[in-house]
Amino acid sequence: MKNTDAILVFLASLVFLLHSSFPLHFAEAQGNETPYTYIEATGRGPSRRGQLNPELQACGNGRMQSPIDIRLQDVKLAPALGDLPLQYQPAAASIKSLGRVIQVSWKGNAGNIIVNGDRYDLKQCHWHIPTEHAIEGIRYDLELHIVHQNSDGAFAVVAILFKLGRPDQFLSRLLPFIKSVTKEEKDLGIINPRDIGFWSRNYFRYNGSLTAPPCSEGVVWTIFQEVIMVSEEQVNALRDAVDNEFKMNARPIQALNGRSVFLYQAI
């Protein structure tokens, strides 16, 4: 059984690598000058992104796009994936508004994760309202993306989903900075990424894309299965801090197109 799981994961990863032959550019990390919004009435909403610029064609015709709706009946158990190795450490960080998201970036060596035997260094994190990924058709109140990059420029993103409830400790620490954030970078001092404070041992894994333009494919997604809590004040602060056209900054669900979604469950 374990050999079968390992073969399934390997084959999915191989197809993913062969499909993703062009360089990746992470829009949230590097900026994107093409104007787009999440509002269809503007003519620059999600359904038209692939037509805004030739470099954004993947947003319209990509076959391995994100986010997706995770349906448990279709998920394949994959014990061979194992626990997600996290090797984080404190490092200098900053915060700024990109207009479309609020982003915390680590300037120094903040550590890494290991995915499919490859090291991906921690770069930044940002939030989307509501969640971009859905589980059983349900989109929750907030999604945190923790972005990592390997030596070849490929990305691995860890996603945490939140529902309204008690305050999230990491956001509680950042809340004063979020409420005063501007488009100018502001130092946060030393931030330990472990302060994010929640690491479920159970997670979904699939191969997808950036959820924002240029929608480049070749992103390894890890989505923690458990949905944790965030306060309404914290969600509102993140919403208030972005531009008007990005108050709801979650991309619509994309077709799975035959991709496999794996689930690792710790014993």
From TrEMBL:
The keyword Chloroplast does not apply. Keywords: Signal. Gene3D superfamilies: Alpha carbonic anhydrase. It is found in: Plastid, Chloroplast stroma. One of its GO terms (molecular function) is carbonate dehydratase activity. It catalyses: hydrogencarbonate + H(+) = CO2 + H2O. Residues 34-265 form the Alpha-carbonic anhydrase domain. Residues 1-29 form the signal peptide. Reversible hydration of carbon dioxide. Belongs to the alpha-class carbonic anhydrase family. This is Alpha-carbonic anhydrase domain-containing protein.
